Amino acid sequence: MKFMKIFLAALLAVVVGGILSSLLWVMIIMGIIGTSSTATTVLPESILKIDLAENITDSPSVNPFSGFNFTSMEVTSSLPLFKVLQAIDAAAQDDRIKGIYLRMNGVGTMDSALLEEIRSALEGFKQSGKFIYAYNENYSQGAYYLASVADKIYLQKEGSIDWQGMSYTVPFFKGLFDKVGIQYEIIRPTSCKYKSAVEPYFLKKMSPENRLQSDEMMRSIWGVIAETVAQARGFESEEELNRLTDELALSLPEDALKHGMVDGLIYEDEMLAIFDEAQVARNDEGNFNFITLGEYTAQLMPDLENLTAPAVAIVYANGSIVDGEGTEDDMIYGNTLAEQLAQVRKNDDIKAVVLRVNSPGGSALASDVVWREMTLLQQQKPVVVSMGSYAASGGYYISAPADVILADRMTLTGSIGVFGAFPITGKLLEDKLGITFDGVKTNSSADFGQGFLFGAIRPINSNERNLLMRSVDKVYDSFTTKVSEGRNLAMEHVLDIAGGRVWSGVDALKVGLIDNYGGLKAAIAVA
């Protein structure tokens, strides 16, 4: 009898807990849906406020819990780049919008290439004759780069600008691995000397090749930022801006004002007088009508008249490339993406395709599955690739068959190369944990790659190394051949620019890896 009481009490607790848990998840989901679907009426004399309250993402999210903080139970909503660009274009033509207020103090994030595309869209907005004003207590380097598009930039009197140039620092783990007894097996074609992702596992500092490409990459990206800001803010030259940057002479508010990085040092309430000077009318309560970027995008309606017109499909390839099928925000499943491309290929209403690639690469096999479908698609319809923050390694592999490839100047692309790497942890397990292994096998390599916890338990032998080398060489030969054919480049030139080397968008154009600069809007226009 006592057992039954305990059992029923436990059962009741489980049932009630399950119900409460389900209700909690329903409340969370409804909260997320409510947050993402709020529509606000755009009032006359409105100011579009871009405050980075949202994460601006390269592609639409497929995860309903994206941006949800399980600790604080708060949601940071997301806006895909395409909607942001649409909103800025619409605001330029919207008579109710008087101008844009860049007040970038939210917790949202966006990548460097997205900054470049949004800044370009804001340049287009200025052609409407409407104002853009920026204000912040502290500007990060990226935020200031975006703010430099504004007609006027204001800084809080005790604020600062994080303006000191760019750096790239890599942690190396070889010393740690030596101490704990981990050996890394690295399989990399000799010609892929720039394929540097594996260097931290077997070196203690950058190789000369990696140092060269990293230095050129950073200088190229910084050159885009410095040139843009120097021109926007009226510096005599990019060299003058770099001199002041080296002297750390642009961060403090008085210095920023002296050298023209900002137009005034004011408190935020003093921005109201700035909007008055811009002849923006106040509402009946004596306030200005602000509408956030998220609110404005929510009320944008599709053009119903053009829904039956010949369509340009946008297909997103966002994240690391992996084998198989699935849907996650930061994963490209090879078979899933190939099926999406097949569907648009077979759809007669779709006349051209834009593939938006934002990927550092991944599985060579999955990349090849997508490459095949890209080739079939290109044979039937125009295909334009729009590269996001990066389209490297497998990201470039799947891009190669396109008719046209566009990238932003700060896009990282190329990395035409391949490697294999895995840790050998047998010595660590034996020396540090006392775990040993023994067994039997029918053939010399029957236990090849056999692992425990997070690594293989024994080093590879000569036959196994030979197999792995032949495998990566085969992938590299296939990769370079497909780039040569897809880009109509001589194989000698492809081998010269490949080797796993990463290029900025600026240099990628010079060596023929892309056809022109441009973001998602430009790619759609080309398609």
What report would you give on this structure?
This protein has 527 residues and is of the alpha/beta class. Helix 6 packs across helix 7 and helix 15 crosses helix 16 (491-497). The longest helix has 35 residues, at 2-36.
Give the topology, please.
Layout lengths: L1 H35 L9 E5 L4 E3 L10 E2 L4 E2 L2 E3 H13 L3 E6 L9 H15 L4 E9 L1 H7 L4 E10 L12 H7 L2 E5 L20 H25 L5 H9 L6 H6 L5 E2 L5 H7 L11 E4 H7 L11 E8 L1 E3 L8 E3 H13 L3 E10 L4 H15 L4 E10 L1 H4 L6 E4 L4 E3 L5 E5 L1 H8 L17 E2 L2 E2 L5 H26 L3 H7 L4 E3 H7 L4 E2 L2 H7 L1
Parallel strand pairs: 1-6, 1-11, 2-5, 6-7, 7-8, 8-10, 12-15, 13-14, 15-16, 16-17, 16-18, 17-23
Antiparallel strand pairs: 3-4, 9-19, 18-22, 20-21
What labels describe this entry?
23 strands; alpha/beta; 41% helix; six-stranded parallel beta sheet
Instruction: Give the helix/strand class.
Output: alpha/beta
| End-to-end CA span | 75 Å
- Helical content (DSSP H or I, runs of 4+): 40-55%
Total number of strands:
23
Low-confidence stretches: 19-37
Could you tell me the radius of gyration in angstroms?
Answer: 27 Å
Q: Largest beta sheet, briefly?
A: 7 strands, mixed
Number of helices: 18
Shape verdict:
globular
Mean pLDDT: 89
Strand-residue fraction?
15-25%
Quick recap:
With 527 residues, the protein is of the alpha/beta class. It is built from 18 helices and 23 strands.
